[in-house]
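Lab notebook, design round three. We kept the backbone fixed and only want residue identities now. Task for the bench partner: fill in a sequence for the structure below.
Input structure tokens:
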């Protein structure tokens, strides 16, 4: 749809340029004749008739020449907003600020508004187009002031101009309940509004909930302010919503391919909208609080630190420019709220039903990221970066670098799992070692965000096997990255090792027999180190460790390096967790075995709890002895990790999500995953449902208080000193 709108803009520009060219043809001879004794027109008349025509031609020719190749080489992530920004800034230059010609040129910019409507809020073009639209709207508003009353939404007392800087749908926490709001940040105030339900085809309308003048807004409440109590939705419920969403997306695609009636598709889309709306309300959990001059607080819940930092930055930056307090009468507030319908730049709640048909479903697989260097700060600081990717419309942190100094950071590589992801975000923090220091704004930790940036994950660009180098600029810091994507059908292959004396890619029974142990040495060592210093690490097992550290540990274990325990003691605990996950992922056969996998997947779906327990326990005890003992050893550890959930944020469900596919995913020959390398696997495919089943199997065993072992031999295995 974006390409279709841009094609229309190109056609309009072509027509406009041809008209300007037609005006330029007689202009030159008329100008030449004006200096003769018998002029056709005087110089003043020529300047009036052909006012600014050459300048407008040059501006629009530059715009057309810049836009044409981008449309011809179109991709979903193509950016054009910078061209609209440049066009509008040139047309509205100060000396031309009251020119009717410039006004006419900008009034032809309504396609910019159409393009914005069809640009997803997460697209890198969205803020650029928002800015371009604001430039033209504010300019036209200032011209209209001379002839007609200015739009009330853009006017405050004494003729001052009010502009919309940013707007977004957000979740507000009201008396413990989550409410969907549309928040508008103007140059002088923050307005929170509720979108009314549309009845009988009426136009969109808003109700004002509250507003705070920017001169009176603070992020830090009074000393006696109670911490924000966030109602948490169990991870199992969120996962169930995602399963339903994936299933409904698949159904809709099937119905479309089958050319079924629109009623069936409409019914499915309605169900999808309900589930996505519920997920939109229940998923965000990162607080952002604002207070008015009386200390009254309002709390929002966001999905990521990146989004929270964006809102804080733009509000604080505008507060520096804002000197007058805007106090609105009830009538003025109503008029401003009504104007939000026309001013809004985010036109739809971020649901699939509001997305374009040709929008990319995102990437599923693994993204390798190398952080090469960071530069730009004048002084050397202890910095680290975190990486976020999106899934189901929400961002979560996936990787964290080691501490480095901006003067000489060593390259660090990470492997990040993608689940329908479209954007990679990078946040750079300064490490604070004063643990008693706590930022009172939203209960954040003491570490300070120094910069942030993002890049689109374009399927067309990343489908190749080569590394793609890029630079992310962020508040004066430049971070150089390389990224490489491996689609799921290639990344999930279990490949037997070619090193018979190693441990990675070798059958677990072979390793335990060689070591004369019940549990592989690598599993025991990793769990021991994590138990020693990683139980309170936020996101342990979820956050990726540095890939180079993981590979170093892999080599050490494969070559039976006697210094491996010393290496582990000096490495980041996330690298040790990553080594353990890699070991299980590279087993030539999953821990739960290929033969029993279909039975586990079937048993977890039984509705009768007694029958399910009997089935699942019998299957578990049918595992080969090394597999069973290793699993029970790991299971006890994961339960101890979950006991510290309030600190490490890793619930039983989170751990099951991380380890379920790793322990259960069958070998390639038994996998149900499609293997067409030309088609990226979307979250709507069978893969997501299969993964959810694997998560549920592991979660079932994690939630069992005890696992009965009727065989005395098996009981002795668990407490064997040989483990």
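Proposed sequence:
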């Amino acid at each position: 749809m974006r390409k279709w709108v841009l094609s229309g803009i190109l056609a309009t520009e072509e027509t406009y340029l041809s008209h300007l060219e037609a005006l330029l043809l007689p202009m030159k001879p008329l100008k030449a004749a004006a200096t003769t004794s018998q002029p056709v027109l005087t110089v003043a008349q020529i300047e009036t008739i052909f006012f600014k025509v050459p300048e407008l031609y040059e501006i629009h020719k530059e715009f057309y020449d810049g836009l044409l190749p981008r449309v011809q080489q179109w991709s979903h992530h193509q950016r054009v907003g910078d061209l609209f920004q440049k066009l509008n800034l040139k047309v509205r230059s100060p000396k031309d600020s009251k020119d009717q010609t410039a006004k006419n040129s900008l009034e032809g910019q309504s396609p910019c508004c159409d393009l914005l409507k069809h640009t997803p809020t997460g697209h890198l073009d969205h803020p650029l187009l928002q800015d371009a639209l604001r430039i033209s709207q504010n300019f036209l508003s200032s011209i209209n002031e001379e002839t007609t009353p200015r739009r009330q939404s853009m006017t405050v007392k004494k003729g001052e101009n009010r502009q919309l800087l940013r707007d977004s749908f957000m979740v507000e926490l009201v008396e413990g309940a989550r409410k969907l709001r549309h928040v508008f940040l103007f140059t002088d105030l923050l307005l929170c509004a509720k979108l009314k339900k549309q009845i009988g085809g009426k136009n969109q309308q808003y109700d004002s909930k509250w507003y705070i003048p920017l001169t009176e807004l603070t992020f830090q409440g009074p000393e006696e302010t109670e911490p924000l109590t966030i109602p948490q939705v169990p991870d199992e419920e969120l996962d169930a919503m995602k399963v339903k969403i994936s299933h409904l997306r698949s159904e809709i695609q099937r119905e479309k391919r089958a050319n079924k009636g629109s009623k069936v598709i409409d019914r499915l889309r309605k169900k999808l909208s309900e589930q996505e709306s519920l997920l939109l309300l229940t998923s965000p959990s990162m607080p952002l609080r604002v207070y008015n001059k009386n200390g009254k607080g309002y709390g929002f819940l966001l999905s990521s630190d990146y989004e929270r930092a964006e809102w804080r930055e733009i509000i604080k930056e505008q507060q520096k420019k804002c000197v007058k307090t805007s106090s609105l009468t009830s009538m003025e507030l109503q008029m401003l709220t009504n104007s939000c319908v026309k001013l809004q730049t985010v036109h739809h709640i971020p649901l699939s039903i509001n997305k374009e048909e040709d929008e990319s479903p995102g990437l599923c697989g693994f993204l390798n990221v190398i952080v090469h260097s960071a530069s730009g700060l004048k002084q050397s600081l202890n910095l680290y970066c975190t990486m976020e990717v999106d899934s189901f419309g929400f961002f979560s942190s996936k990787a964290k670098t080691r501490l480095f100094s901006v003067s000489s950071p060593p390259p660090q590589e990470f492997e990040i799992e993608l689940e329908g992801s479209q954007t990679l975000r990078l946040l750079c923090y300064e490490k604070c070692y004063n643990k008693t220091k706590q930022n009172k704004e939203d209960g954040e930790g003491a570490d300070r965000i120094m910069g942030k940036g993002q890049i689109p994950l374009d399927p067309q660009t990343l489908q190749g096997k080569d590394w793609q180098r890029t630079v992310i600029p962020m508040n004066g810091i430049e971070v150089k990255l390389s990224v490489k994507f491996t689609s799921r059908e290639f990344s999930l292959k279990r490949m037997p090792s070619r090193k018979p004396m190693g441990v990675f890619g070798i059958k677990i029974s072979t390793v335990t027999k060689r070591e004369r142990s019940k549990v592989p040495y690598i599993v025991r060592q990793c769990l021991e180190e994590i138990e020693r210093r990683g139980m309170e690490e936020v996101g342990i097992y979820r956050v990726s460790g540095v890939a180079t550290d993981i590979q170093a540990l892999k080599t050490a274990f494969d070559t039976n390096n006697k210094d491996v325990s010393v290496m582990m003691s000096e490495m980041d605990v996330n690298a040790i967790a990553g080594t353990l996950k890699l070991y299980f992922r590279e087993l030539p056969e999953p821990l739960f075995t290929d033969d029993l996998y279909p039975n586990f997947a079937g048993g977890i779906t039984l509705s009768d709890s007694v029958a399910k327990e009997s089935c699942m326990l019998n299957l578990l005890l049918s595992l080969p002895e090394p597999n069973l003992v290793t699993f029970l050893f790991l299971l006890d550890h994961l339960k101890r990790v979950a006991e510290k959930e309030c600190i490490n944020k890793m619930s039983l469900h989170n751990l099951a999500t991380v380890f379920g596919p790793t322990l259960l995913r069958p070998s390639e020959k038994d996998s149900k995953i499609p293997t067409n390398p030309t088609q990226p696997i979307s979250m709507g495919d069978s893969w997501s449902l299969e993964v959810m089943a694997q998560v549920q199997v592991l979660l079932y065993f994690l939630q069992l208080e005890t696992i009965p072992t009727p065989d005395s031999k098996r009981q002795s295995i668990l407490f064997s000193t040989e483990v």
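Keep this in mind before ordering anything: Residues 81 and 127 are 8 Å apart (CA to CA).
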